[in-house]
Amino acid sequence: MTLASLLTIYVPLLGWTFCGWVLGRLLPATMPAYLGKFLFWVGVPISIVAFLRHAHLSASLWLAPAVSWVAMLLGVGIAWWLSQTQGKLLARLLPLSQPTRGSFLLASMLGNTGYIGYPVALALVEPRDFAWTLLYDLLGSTPGAYGLGVAIAARFGEASHLKHGQSLQVMLKNPALWSFGIGLVCRDRPLPLLLETGLRSVAWVIVALSLVLIGMRLSQLSSLANLKLAALSIAIKMLLVPLLLGLGLWAVGITGSAYRAILLQMAMPPAFATLVIAEAYDLDQELTVTTLLLGCLSLVLLLPLWLWLCGALGMPSPPS
Fold first, then answer.
1. I want to staple 47 with a disulfide (CB 3.0 to 4.6 A). Which of 64, 154, 202, 206 is the partner?
2. CA distances from 269 to 18, 100, 239, 266, 302 (A)
């Protein structure tokens, strides 16, 4: 991949994120919460409907959420094995309390396949194959976070402020799932050219705002602790799991834009949902915050690796 191609990816990705970081320092501390609610309830659902317009759908799309679950289970499995059978190794990094172990497991398992995954995929995956990215997130990462993720947090957390069964309500109330259904029904229905163009323009504004929100939230992360343990979870989540599964998918014949979409989603940094869950269940919030920041920085360094891997395996170049 050429330097010019990388710049077309990094300039908007880093530019909008840095803009959000600056705004997060200047605006009231409550602004990220308001922007997050707007994106959650209005912005992201609109963008999903827009980007599903004329998307290519096939019976093989079930592979995306299946790989998502395999990636999450592999990540948490490796982290669990390290924390259980390799306790002496981790003890050299940090004495693992139950809350710390819970945060370590979550960071090794859950990826930010929405607010970061969507913009990255839209830059590097053919628009007609964006459904792979959506299904990976909506049927994999989202129920994984509020299902398996909450179960892990309840097991290792010191306290729970959420009632049992509330995670299912969170998933069912997620407007992204509903907008995905609406987008599927309406994806081939003709719209006036002005409305079609306006819908797509609004969707790209939402993508920019999602990156701005990431920057604003990063600007509020004030404490960094347990860097070695955080680096280990990042190595599992963003390097080992996508490398193993990426080579596995290639070996069984998964290629093209679908392969790129799945690989990039597997390689996303830890989700901000890990901090929400950590706060609700009294896990190690300092470790969670550190993994979030380290993961976002690592994405910038690792993206060229995954694009190189796609090229080395004979995949087509990203859309220009």
1. 206
2. 17, 19, 10, 9, 10
d(CA 38, CA 175): 11
Are residues 268 and 120 in contact, defined by beta-carbon separation less than 8 angstroms?
A: yes
192 lies in some domain: yes
pLDDT-based confidence at residue 247 (cuts at 50, 70, 90):
very high
Residue 320 lies in a domain: no
Which pLDDT score, from 0 to 100, does residue 92 have?
Answer: 60
Would 124 be classed as within a structural domain? yes
Residue 317 lies in a domain: no
Q: Give the range of the structural domain holding residue 123, as residue numbers without chain letter.
A: 3-312
> Which CATH number fits the domain that encloses residue 74?
1.20.1530.20
Residue 13 corresponds to which tokens in the numbers above? Answer: 């990705």
The model's pLDDT over 196-221, given as tens digits with 9 standing for 90+, comes to 999 999 999 999 999 999 999 888 87
Q: In Å, what is the CA distance from 60 to each residue of 3, 55, 115, 284?
A: 33, 14, 25, 39
Domains: count for the chain: 1
Please give the backbone phi and psi of residue 224, each rounded to the nearest 5 degrees, phi first. -120, 125
Mean pLDDT of all residues in the chain? 86
C-alpha span between 199 and 131 (Å, rounded): 17
